[in-house]
Structure formats: C-alpha cells, structure tokens
Amino acid sequence: MGIRIKLTILKKLLLLVPVFLLFVSTTVVAQVFQFDNEGDSEIYGNEITDFQWIRGQYTNHAGGSRGFGRRGGGWWDTDYPDSDENFLRGVQRYTNIDTNPRNHEFIELTDPSLFENIFLYMNWKRVPIGSSSSGPNFSPAEIEALREFMFRGGFVMVDDFWGQPHLDDMFAEMGKIFPEREIIKLNNTHEIFHVFFDIDEVAQVPGRMVTWDFGGFMKLDDPSYPPEVYAILDDDGRVMMVANYNTDLGDGWEHTFYKGYPTKATNDAYKIGINFLMYAFSH
Amino acid sequence: MAYSQPNFLTALEDGTFTFAYGISPWLFALLVVLITIGVWFSYRKTTRQLSTPWKAFFIGIRSSVLVLLLFCLLRPVVTTLQVSPQETYLAVLIDDSQSMSIADLADGQTRQAAVEEQLYENGLLDELSESFQIRTFRFDNQTQRIAGIEELSEEGTASSIDQALSYVNDQLNGLPLGGIILVSDGADNSDDDPLATAQDLGARQIPVFTIGVGQEDIPQDIGIVDVSAAKTVLEGSVFNVQVAVNHQGYEGQEVELSIMDGETQIVSDVVILGAEGVTRRFELEITPERPDLIVYDLNVELQAGEIIDKNNSYSFLVDNTEKEALDILYLEGHPRNEYKFIRRAVSGDNSLRLATYLQTGPEKYYRQGIESATELSSGFPEDREELFEYEAIVLGDIEFDFFDAEQLQMLEDFVAERGGGFLMSGMVDEEFIGSPIANILPITLVEEGFLPAHLRGGIRRGDHPTGELFYPRLTRNGEFSPLLRLSADDSENQALWRQLPELQGTYVTGRIKPGAEVLIEHPLLQYQNQALPLLASQRYGSGRSMSLTTASTWRWQMMLPAADESHEILWRQILRWLAVSAPERITIEFDREFYNVGDEVNVRAIVLNNEYEADNDATLWMQTSNPLEEFIDAPMEWDIEEDGVYRARFIAEEEGVYSLLVDVASAAGETSDSSAEKTAAFVVTPSLREYTNAELDSGLMARIAEVSGGSYFKLPAASELANTIEFTPNAYSREVQIDLWDRPWLLALLILLLCVDWVSRRTKGLS
C-alpha cells in the first residue's frame, strides 16, 4: 500500500517535469528576446491600422488554469506577445496589408468586439500532451461565438499540436464547434497554399520544447510526425478554420530573432501564416 | 334625309314630284281653277232648282273628277334614286373576333349566334340579295371573304374595323360597290381610326350601314386588364407580378388570385374587389424555381354569374434562363475587409462576375474570378477592347501610380464612351486630383491639407471625427433608390436601415458635382456647409459613376447575424446598377411585349463593334425556334436609316414560346465567341384585348354610319335595313321616275267621285 502511494506521487512528479521545462523556457525566452518598444515604434509605426491581430482567450480545463501565473490561466497565450508582434512585422514588410507590430490584442471569445475583426488566432496547446487537464474547454457561449464568427466570414487559425493524442484532442475540440461538419486535411494544391507564396510542401516549424533544443520527445522531420493542416469549410467550400498539426507557427514567429533557431523554419512559419491571412482577406 | 320607299306626299315634301309632259304645277293649278270656273258656269242653270249648297256640292264633285282626269292625263311622276337590281354590290362585314363569343344577350345567347339568327335565319341577307350582289367577309384584325356562316369561328384576337373597311374597299375596287354593312360590337382595339376611312367612303358615296351587336353595359364580370412582371429576372430573386383587375357587379367580393406554372400553383392570395368600373392593381410575389423560359398563368377565381370567363386568366412569360453574368473588373490596392466581403456578397449571385485584381504586396498581385488564364495576367487590361469587355469597373483604395496616363484615359473613355459603370470605393489617392478619374467622380476631390483641422486624420479608426463610428443617413433620394432598398415596403425599408450597425471612418471629399446625387451622407460631419457624402452617383457621358467614401460596409456583414443578407443585397444591387446599363454588343428588341397568333413580329437587333460603336458592316442571321420546335433561319437586314440596327419580321403562327438566336459575324472578323450571338424569347398567348372594354360601342357604330352617309341599326331592328339600303343614294344609284297615274287609289277615287255624282244627280232629279 505504502509503495503504491509513493509510485503515484512519483508519476505525478514525472508528469510535471515537461511542464516545468516549458515554463522555464518560455520565461527565459521572454527575458532574452523582449523587444525595445520605443525603437520598434520608430521603425514600424504605432498607428491604429486597418488590420489588427487578434488572439483568442478561452476557457481552459482546470489543469491549465492554475499555477503558472499566466493571463487568466491556461495556455492560450503561448508565445505571446513576441510571436504576434514578429508576425505582424513580417506581414507589414511582405504584404500590402495595413498593419504594424503594435496592432495586436487578445480578447475573450465572447467579447462582441471579436466581430470587428476577420482573423482570429488561437493557441490550443495542451500540457501535458494527451491530457485533458489543460487546453480549451469552451463554454457554450464561446462555441456559439466561434461558430457565428466563422459563419459571418471570420477566419480562425489554431496552432501547436503534436502527436496523435493531441490530434485527437484537436478533433474533439473542433467537433464541439462544428459537430455537423467534416474536418478535412488540406493538400498542397489547395488555394490557401498559393494565394501569396507558393507553398508546395508544408514544412515542419519546430516547437522549441517539443522537437528541438530542449530534447523533446521527437526530432524535426520525424516521418511519424508529419506536418499537416486540417480545415473546416463553409457551405461554399471556403476554408473558415485551419489547424496546424505537428508544427508550431507560433514558435517560428516568436524566435525570429533568436540566432539559434533555424531561419528556414522561421521563414516557413511566416509564409504559411501570411498565406492564411491573405486567404482570409480574399475569401 | 329619311330613307324609305317614296310616295306622293313625301315626294311633294321633297320636291321630287313633276309631270312627265313638262307641265309646270303652276299651270296645272291654273287649269284646275279654269275647270272649276267652267263647271260652275255650266251649273248656272239646271233642269231642277237646286239650293246653293247642293249646287256647290255638284260643282265640287264634277270639278274633282275633271281635275283628277287632267292630273292623270298629264302623267304625274315622282323622281327618285334607286339601285338597279343585281347591278351593284353590297359588302357585308361580320365581326369574327373573340368578343363576338360573349353571351351577353337574352337567354345567354352569344353575339355571334344573334347575328346568325338575324342575318341568315331571318332572311335579311336573302332579302338583300334580291337587289344586290352580296359579298360577305369576316374580320378581326384581318379580313377574309367567306361563303357562309359556317366559316365564322369567333377566334380573332383583335378587332380592327378600319382595316376591314379598307380591305373591302380595296378588294371590291372597280366593282360597283353600293354600300357596306358592318356587323360588329364596335369593340375596336386597333390603333387605327375607322372614322377616317368611313368618311372617305362617304365622300365616294359608299354608305356604311352599321348593325350594333351586344349590350352597352356588361352587368357582371371580373376581368384581368393587364399583368406586368419583370420579363427577365435574376436567378433566385423574388419579383413582383402586378395584375390590374376591373369588374362590374362584384364590389366588396373576395376573390382568389393565383399563379400557376403548368399544373402547379406557385402562389395565391385572396383580395377584396373595390369600386366597380375602377381598375385596381394587386401584387403577387414569386420566385422562379427553374432556369427556363417559364410561361405562368395568372387566374382570377371565376365568380357565379360572370358573363365573360375568358378574361379571368392571363399568360405571361418570364425568362429565367441562365444569363451571361455582368462582368465587373475590380482593382484593389491592398487586402482589406471591404474587398473580402464585396467578393463574398457577389459570390452567390450568378448574374454578376467579379474579376478582381488585388495588390497583395509590393509587386505582387492576386487574381480572382477570372475566366481564363490570360485574363488580367498582365495587370490592367492592355487595350480598350479588352477593357471594354467589362460592364463596370471598381477601384478600391488603389494608388495613382498603379496607372499610366493612357490607362487613366481608357478608364474615362470606358465610362463616357463605352457607357460602363465606375465605382471608386474607400480612400482616394490625392494624386488623382486633376486626373481623368477626378472628372468621372460625382464628387470633387480635395487635398487633406486644405481641409479644416477637424476633418483631417483620415479614414482609419481613432478618436479623430473622420475615424469614428457613425450611423449613415439616407438622403431622400437614397431612401427611394432601388440601389439601397432592403424592402419594397417603405416603412419596412426604413426600419431595416435603422437596424444596420454603425459604419466607421469617412474619407472627406469636396462638394458634389452639379447633376450628381447623394444617396447616403454622414449624419454629423459637414464640409463647405454640405453633409459629407458617403455614397454619391452621377451620369458621366454614356455611363454612370459612383463614389463610396467609407471602407467599412463590411461591418454590415460582421456586425449582424450570419443569416442577415443586408450586406449582400446592397452590394449586389449597387454592382448590378453599375453594370446593367452598359450596352451589350448585341441587343435584341421586339416591337411588342407579347403576341397573339397571326401577329407580325418585328425584331430589331442593335449591333456594336469591338469599340462599342454602331456596326453597320455586320452580317446577321436569325434562327427562330417556334413552339413546335421547328427551326427557321433568316437573315436580318441592316436598316439604312439607323446606325447599327438590323431588322427582320415574321408571322407568329403558333401559341407558345418562340426562341430566337441571332448570330453576328462582324466584317472585321474580330468578334469574340461570347458576344457573337444573342438569344431572346417571346410568348404568343391568348389575348385579353377582346374581353377588355368589350361592351357594344354604339357611339362608334353610329358615327361610322353617320360620316359615311349610312344608317345605324341595333341588331333587333336590322330587318328595316333592306328597304333603307335600296333607297339610300349611292355612287351607283340611278334616277328613276315612278308614274303615279296608274296608281289604284287614283282609279278608285275617280270611280268613287263619279258614283257619288251620279247618285246625287239621280236623287235630285237632274238629267
């Protein structure tokens, strides 16, 4: 009996290790790559622009809402705000979309101002992977807001899933929003991969913890973890929601200026992200 | 002048009495006096004494006998005009149009049956044929000679009395035509005036005798007067069918109106009829459900006691075939919400094709809605011909530098010469000031530097007034503009507009140009004492232009429930309005909205060349497919009087839908496949004309008789006709002298007088 109790405690501790590592990594990165706001403004401007990047803040499972001091709890703000700002910088540089790195915001899904936007980014990270003790646990009001947002013409991008358990989680969450719609895998010939950049192969953008310098559970380009993009279409065949699987665009944007991060991965993250955004603006 | 067989008294009255031996009536009067004096002289002495009264009596009797003998010896005659038996012709024109089948006479007898009874069964024509050579004709809007009553059909769908009179006049020209009998209800529905022809006939001494058939008032009837519906509808759209109904005797009655597509009832409504004799319009709403040429039947429920049932149904054609979409070129300067949602608004509308060219990044462009790999592949259309293939152009927030000078001029020509639509949407680059674009716009452009401080700051969100949220205000013109209608009902439309969410951001322009029209304006902000125009339009040359100076109509989509269609409706209406008036390369027109069997169909095709100028050098073939699906090819001939106009005509011989395909081969040989042919359709339907205003028009019938020197009879009195015709002067009447001396009453009078004289003398013992 005594041994069993000790083993259970040990298992719990072991499970907390990757969580701890992720927490440390995020904190360290945030400290090292924090941008100079004033300098940024001079270069990129700080006007309120036509386009504003919106990150969705959602209700989490209980496990994700405690203990890490995150904004409101949960993992919705993974990579925030660096990924958002860097991505906007890229959008500003490469496209004619009216924006600058200051035009980002996170809002609750039930905030009516959601409908003043056409593009919503959400990070649905679950920690530990395969666990339902964190990640999104949408309220009925949030589900309704997401459905309505997309039916009116809004575009939703979710990111950062790894491995089959996470895919199952992702499917379960998408199924809650659109129980009646099929989730399809987009192949590379889809218009969304050619609307701005021609992306003939969806590259894997490494998550720092999962694949790369923290010795995660998989290696980059491991064939058993193929990068894929799943989507839900509206009645006219337009993509209204994409989910990136076995890839992490958020990390790719976040680590733009981190010398140790592969530049190619960053570039790929921008390309895919910009294409999604351009598709949202044109469909 | 009264027409009847002449007698002594009427002859005296008319002055047509004479003595054949040339003795004047005055001399005759003198002889009468002399005879009387002579007789008086001989009665001065008598064998027996007579009292003075008796003497006077005998003088009177004897004088009368002698005067009577003198009268007869002098051969009194009456001179009159009379037809020579069998030497002149009489035309009998019988109305054979549908209105003659109306059973408004006693015992439910039809007009035609009454005519048959009077003319044939009662022997009127037989009687006339004793004096005349009879030629009988039937007429509706055409006239044919008939041999007998069995050739009447009552199927004519129109009546033209003028045409009938003229036809008879032409056909019997050269023959001694002594008169025309016109048997009709007078319900003439042609555009020609029969009185002029009647007057002409009268001048040539061909009197027209008219016989009116039917009742002057139809007491109980409900009739469809007219139905109007959009001939061509956009796919899936709802449209109104207006039906005009008139009635007699059913005031306050509830009747059902219904529209049928074959055997299927599409819609129905119960309406209450208003005051009798007043045409009232009712509306029904339908959505064509199949992409086809659809012939609908509109029915008004038949009521008990109605005299005419045929005017309770009406067929009309709606062309719901798939149309070639209106092509709109949309050049957009940067990805923005407005672009996305305009595209989405149009995506479900097959009547519009939006070919878009979006500048996604520096030197990067994205094409959508293109029809071929080459469309817009080199950016802005390379030449006028390519540009002019579009019907409208939208510029969205695009920079002046995107265009070169030639392209800007092409844009102005596109609107002014080609007649295309132009919309500038969102911000306007100040560089456009002084360019052809500034000419096209309905508003003047102003540099921001010249604006008062509170109007600066641009269209982006922010605390500056021009960046704030606001509820747009419809102007009076905007409220009633079909462009901005969210509902056909005025109050509902206003309510729907009030429910639209706020817009955000206004691009400030100067005053509107003279002749331009503001449809939406800013509720608060003004410049130069004029509310800032948000949506304004004007005619420019042959085309039309519009400016929309906000970039936030997408909020009508994102800030309203997904099911709300306001944004889609408004943008579709705006874009359609822009594009729809641009002339097509080939336009087909018919001279009428619908035809009846036997009508001549006049087809007019207007052909423009690649530069959208009238093309007089094309070759046109028209293929006609009739309701029996027989195909007939015929050329269309250029009308030398009109540039670019080609004509053809044929007779519609079958009831149903006719389809036309006009094929154009341009002499220049440059016609593209898509515009080289054009289809059109029309329907040949039963007509209601004959049942509208179908009462007996005795006024018209009497007037025709009067101006031609004839007489008007109502049908029951037609038996008097034969006598009247015989003694009515006409061009072929001859003068005849009728002797009076051998009249039996004269001999009887003479014998009577002699008897009286003899008996009286015996009584008085005279020798």
Structure description:
The complex is a heterodimer of chains A (283) and B (767). Chain A is of the alpha/beta class and 283 residues long. Chain A has a single domain (51-282), classed as Domain of unknown function DUF4159 (Rossmann fold, 3-Layer(aba) Sandwich). Chain A has helices spanning 2-32, 37-44, 82-94, 140-152, 163-177, 208-211, 249-254, 263-282, and strands at 53-57, 104-108, 119-123, 155-161, 184-185, 228-233, 239-245. Chain A has a seven-stranded mixed β-sheet with strand order 2-1-3-4-7-6-5, sandwiched between helices. In chain A, a hairpin with a 5-residue loop joins strand 6 (228-233) and strand 7. By secondary structure, chain B is of the alpha+beta class. Chain B has five domains: 8-82 and 737-764, no CATH class; 88-150 and 162-209 and 694-732, von Willebrand factor, type A domain (Rossmann fold), CATH 3.40.50.410; 221-319, Immunoglobulins (Immunoglobulin-like, Sandwich), CATH 2.60.40; 326-580, Rossmann fold, CATH 3.40.50.880; 586-685, Immunoglobulin-like (Sandwich). Helices cover 25% and strands 30% of the residues of chain B. In chain B, helix 8 links the parallel strand 15 and strand 16 (352-361). In chain B, helix 6 packs parallel to helix 7 and helix 8 crosses helix 15. The two termini of chain B are 53 Å apart. The interface between A and B is medium-sized, with 27 and 32 residues.
What features would you highlight for this structure?
heterodimer, A: 283 residues, alpha/beta, Rossmann fold, 8 helices, 13% strand, disordered N terminus, B: 767 residues, Immunoglobulin-like, 5 domains, nine-stranded mixed beta sheet, 18 helices, 25% helix, elongated
